[in-house]
Specification:
mainly beta, SH3 type barrels, five-stranded antiparallel beta sheet
Length: 65
């Protein structure tokens, strides 16, 4: 099975409720990682707005200092 390099990374449990930068094919999204599944990530960019990102669009996820 062919695997695209931009897939949801494993080990995201350590990133839950922490400030992250999600790099996608279209740019960066900064916020708090609130949830993830096999096909999506949810990032809270401000106090109320949740952004759902499909895993096929995710290139990397890193913690913000």
């Amino acid at each position: 099975m062919f695997r695209n390099c931009c897939q949801c990374p494993e080990g995201l449990i350590l990133f839950l409720d922490r400030r992250v930068v999600v790099e996608t094919k279209c740019g960066e999204i900064k916020g708090f990682l609130r949830a993830f599944g096999e096909t999506f990530l949810e990032v809270q960019e401000d106090k109320v707005e949740l952004t759902v990102i499909q895993c096929a669009q995710v290139c990397s996820v890193r913690l913000l200092g």
